Automatic annotation (TrEMBL):
Keywords: Membrane, Methyltransferase, S-adenosyl-L-methionine, Transferase, Transmembrane, Transmembrane helix. Gene3D superfamilies: Vaccinia Virus protein VP39 (3.40.50.150). This is Methyltransferase domain-containing protein. GO terms for molecular function: protein-lysine N-methyltransferase activity. The keyword Amino-acid biosynthesis does not apply. InterPro entries: FAM173A/B, SAM-dependent_MTases_sf. GO terms for biological process: methylation; regulation of mitochondrial ATP synthesis coupled proton transport. Belongs to the ANT/ATPSC lysine N-methyltransferase family. The keyword Oxidoreductase does not apply. The chain crosses the membrane at residues 26-45. GO terms for cellular component: mitochondrion.
């Protein structure tokens, strides 16, 4: 009987306490949100930061409207295609495509290439303006 008494002192859990279950769910939710936010920041920031870590740093500087006007003026009465190395957000390529030139832009930053493709589509020149992710170093 003493063995029966020892076994009766041991209590096995029959159900999970709902309060502790809710607390642990909040922990998972919080960890997931913070982890997801950090991954997102990393994915967005990396293409902009890594070019600065190169031996030769070339930052993205968008073309001004005057520079775009000058390029378009230089293209008048010419034939052929335009290639923009380091096309950034695609302003020059899109302007050339609007003037009827087949134009190609090469850019290292994938976010800028995707944005350029979107802008070309929005401007209606996605057929004659092409953008490629390329490291020409």
């Amino acid at each position: 009987t003493s063995e029966e008494e020892r076994q009766s002192d041991r209590v096995l859990p029959t159900s999970v306490d709902s309060d502790s279950w809710k607390t642990s769910n909040w922990g998972f939710l919080f960890t997931g949100i913070i982890g997801g936010a950090l991954v997102t920041v990393y994915a967005v920031a990396t293409p902009f930061i890594t070019p600065a870590l190169r031996k030769v740093c070339l930052p993205f500087v968008p073309a001004t409207s005057k520079q775009i006007e000058n390029v378009v003026k230089m293209l008048q009465h010419r034939r052929g295609s335009l290639v923009d190395i380091g096309s950034g957000d695609g302003r020059i390529v899109i302007a050339a495509a609007k003037e009827g030139f087949p134009a190609v832009g090469y850019e290292l930053n994938p976010w800028l290439v995707w944005y350029s493709r979107y802008r070309a589509w929005r401007e209606g020149v996605h057929g004659s303006a092409k953008f490629y992710i390329s490291d020409l170093w």
